[in-house]
Write the structure tokens for this entry.
Amino acid sequence: MTDALMGVYNRAPLEVARGEGCRLYSTDGRSYLDCVAGIATDGLGHANPALVAALTEQARKIWHVSNIFRIPGQEALAERLTGACFADVAFFGNSGSEAIEGSLKTARRYHYANGQPERIDVIGFAGSFHGRTYAAINASGNASYLEGFGPRLPGYVQLSVDDEAGIAEAIARPTTAALIVEPVQGEGGARALSGEWLRRVRQLCSAHGVLLIYDEVQSGMGRTGKLFAHQWFDGCEPDIMAVAKALGGGFPVGVCLATREAAKGMTVGVHGSTFGGNPLAMAVGIKAFDMINDETLLAHVRAIGERLTAGLQELAERYADIVVDIRGKGLLIGIKLVPNNREMMATAREEGLLVAGGGENCIRLLPPLILSEAEADEALDRLETAFLVARRRLDDAA
Ligand code: PMP
């Protein structure tokens, strides 16, 4: 492999030549069942004909225009998104990190606009992941992301989701601006928060004028079987929400969504992006949105998620020496392991199954939302073969 790339990724020795649906084909002629999907990004599978058509049709018209002009696709996608959730307004960027950055800036500007510029503190949680920009690594709940990047920025508070008293105390502080949380923790290992937890935090935030930000970069766009994961529960809508990944079906796009009230500080000139909301991203995003915000597809996600989870639970019983826990929601599934998760990813890959890693020694299954029943069963079979290999390895070591 070339040494002309910064060495920031731990790359598997797999070179993808092309993809189709839930399959990837490598340059050395092997095929894989893809339960990574670009980390919950290729929601509608690879080379989806409808998305390819939307992209190529737009490419022939116009790729890029500045946000100093009106962009019809942006207006159309913003109308769709705000029509399908709590939000009134949208700001488009190109990634999850930018959606988070926009969300955090929106929250602080809200308090500034209210004449309370001292309210800057953002409460975040252990095990959370919000991206790699400076603001995002400060909001994230893993100190290793900050190492060597200078001092922790002021205005970021870290708590545990289990620390009820600490959360209540922090929300009540007069310098608190916002609380940011993933309704289903992704990188942390597919940990789903309860409706009770979300409602309690919603109520505390409302009582103290603190803005509630959901990071649905990974859990949103159908991943859990609802358009957004928090929509599983009543009474816990946020003020601001970051969405990305599957929003563009694999094309780079992210969005910060907010109520009109929460966004009142975001006035002309305070934020912006050259590429954010470009016509190519919007054309694919509109098509992907219409295909995902569809009750038939969402019901399919719920059914396939249940099928996979039931199969995994059954595997967990038979492989209690390998599997510690099955968790997550819909098609955001975490399998907490006894053997090393990186090793298991490699073993599964050898068996033709691609899975992602996750915190707490998990592997994650994040397949395209269109995974069929037969493909779900195939994933379970291949995973069992990988478990058998791991068991033999454990036995050999003993
Ligand atoms: N938030 C969450 C919950 C994520 O899972 C990710 C990416 N894994 C991000 C933010 C950052 O997104 P991006 O890599 O597109 O900047």
